[in-house]
Amino acid sequence: MTAMKENILIVEDEFIVANDLRLKLAKAGYQICGIAPSVEEAKKIIEKSLPTWVLLDIFLQDGSMGTDLAPILTEKNIGFIYISANTNQSVLESAKATQPYGFLVKPFREKDLLIMLDIARQKHQSNLDLFAQRELIWKKQLEVIIISETEANNKIIQLPGFFQSFIPFDFMRICFRAKGNSKSKSHNFIRTGFDEYELLDDRELHSRISFSTSESGIRIRDAQHDSNFYLNEINFKRSLMDDIWEKRLSSSYNLNSKLNFHVPIEKSGPVEISFYSKRPDGYSKTQLSLLERTKSSFAQLFEKTLISPPVVPAVRQSQTAGIVSGQIMSGHTGIKKFDGIIGKSPALLEVLDKIEIVAPSGTLVLITGESGTGKERVAQCIHKLSPRKNKPLIIVNCAALPLDLVESELFGHEKGAFTGAFEKRIGKFEQADGSTIFLDEIGELPLSAQVKLLRVLQEMEFERVGSSKTTKINVRVLAATNRNLEKEVSEGRFRLDLYYRLNVFPIEVPPLRKRLQDIPLLAEYFMQKFTERMGRQKHNISKDALDSLQSYDWPGNIREMEHLIERSILDNSGTEITSIRLPAVRLNSLPIDPPALKISKLKTLDENEAEHIIHVLKAVQGRVAGAGGAAEILGLPAGTLYSRMKKLGIKKEFDTDN
Questions:
Q1: 178-229 pLDDT, tens per residue?
Q2: Which of 29, 130, 163, 587 is deepest in the core (most CB within 10 A)?
Q3: Does domain 7-129 have CATH number 3.40.50.2300?
Q4: Domain ranges in the chain?
Q5: β-pairing, 257-263 with 229-232?
Q6: What beta strand segments (E) does 101-182 contain?
Q7: Which residues pair with 480 in a beta bridge?
């Protein structure tokens, strides 16, 4: 391992541990800029020496918490790794929320320390490369908007989608402030979907937030018009006490943070851009610095638009103009781009934003979420939007790999490598060379395979089973799990170094119960899908049926809803679904510590699948194969359905084909 001349600050209140760390790091070639026993002492050293990395204990004897230092380190772009003797789940969750670059459990070996630093360095560099790549693209997009010959109104319309990729917002306001007594012109954008925004003038916005013209004299604090700043959570809430307009706005749209950017224009008044987010930690110095680095370009853009000032349409224009009912339409580009991912809820939009950010890069992505939330669909979208899209995505279900053949499946084997190896086999990683491999249910891999996977991720090379020849590959890795990997690490079932190697760019897919507002769109999508597949007339769904769907907890998430809609269409003889046959036991009806009797009523995924297959078989009088058979309706090859029936114990009496 190559030693790096990097400054490291050790924040540790046990002198023996701190000194041992110092000796190990010095031996490896690192420079130690200081040892701090508390957060306050660490702050002083950081200001004086600006370390490259910080090794940070979580619980310090003076009562301070190492996690309290994390926001300061993030702000200064200093990488940090936690060192702690405490590995319970709550500690790991608390540490994870601060987005460290690693986590070391005391006591640890010198080798573990150096490997973790190496992983952290690579992860940090990957993040920097991704940011630099995105910034370059962002600046080029801005240049295209500036030099385009489109009218000023169209230039303004392009800005919400342009800003969203780097400065996510739920509400954005662009205000052209005129000099003297001239009236300012404002453009207010409300995000309604992916690449979809509603455009309102001040009159329409004030009506929405119940702000009267008589209150306009106490609109906004003049002292902040010419300043660049961001306010998160508590600081943002405090600022609302001085501004009635902003208080009404934040209350109406549940806004919790703000970023303000001021662009001076020589020939007129300044332009002020304000971004608001529902997230309490929506903005950072990194975003503000990016805007400040491109201030001259924005000045050039707004000077051009001021030559022929944009006008918010007072009447509804045609869809070809890009505005309908005051709304900028995406033309369903989001649906096409994220094929099969349906919804507009804030929780889902956050996932779509992350997909768009990471897809063009080669960055490793860890997709987490409960079973049935659509993790594989997220992986497919990332691959489809990547430069590797012309090669097939190689999908590996780690949970389905036989324990004694895991290495052979992943890395291949030579003829005669073991009993039964009658011919040479190319493994999944080699098949994915030049493309993308998706390791689904990565938490199910045995520890022996985790060791070999770690090397592949680090070196991009491996040996087939039974071979001493090293094979080099160029593979992008996506991984997914429904397990809590922090808990798996704390209980010794998953390697800590592998977890941090995988967790470069995490995407957490929300459960359906956290995106209930997407249920009407999902219901419509699934009804269209299944009526077309079954050759049935288009179905509608009643309000009562939708209400029942939105009151259910969805333990099986999207997969469960898909099966339920399909079953409802089969049950329904008309063209409107007026009621939904939901499972009798709901999660929100169970007590905190439910009796074993009630828990036993909850069905497993296999039981739910068997019930669904039987339901379809009955609807088609037991016909499995052929036109209109159960296999066609379920979207499965007949052979696969027969196999599933055998595994699930579904008797052949349903099969009347033969």
A1: 766 567 788 999 999 988 999 998 889 999 999 876 665 544 444 445 689 9
A2: 163
A3: yes
A4: 7-129, 148-331, 335-510, 518-654
A5: antiparallel
A6: 102-105, 171-176
A7: 367
Pick the CATH number of 518-654 from 3.40.50.2300, 3.40.50.800, 1.20.120.140, 1.10.8.60: 1.10.8.60
Pull the structure tokens for residue 563: 């099966």
CA-wise closest residue to 609 among 571, 569, 649, 570? 649
pLDDT tens, position by position, 358-367 = 999 889 999 9
Sheet holding 257-263, edge to edge: 229-232, 257-263, 271-277, 171-176, 185-193, 196-200, 327-328, 323-324
Whether residue 245 is predicted with pLDDT greater than 60 in this model: the reply is yes
- State the Cα–Cα distance between residues 135 and 157, nearest whole angstrom: 21
Closest Cα partner for 578 from 610, 545, 554, 625?
A: 545
Q: Which residues pair with 397 in a beta bridge?
A: 440
Domain 148-331, CATH class in plain words: alpha beta
Alpha-carbon distance 484 to 490, whole Å? 10
CA 304 – CA 307 distance, rounded (Å): 5
Identify whether the C-beta of residue 243 lies closer than 8 Å to the C-beta of residue 274: no
Return the structure tokens found at 70: 């994390």
pLDDT digits (tens, 9 = 90+) for 128-155: 888 888 899 899 999 999 988 878 778 8
Indicate whether this model's pTM tops 0.70. Answer: yes
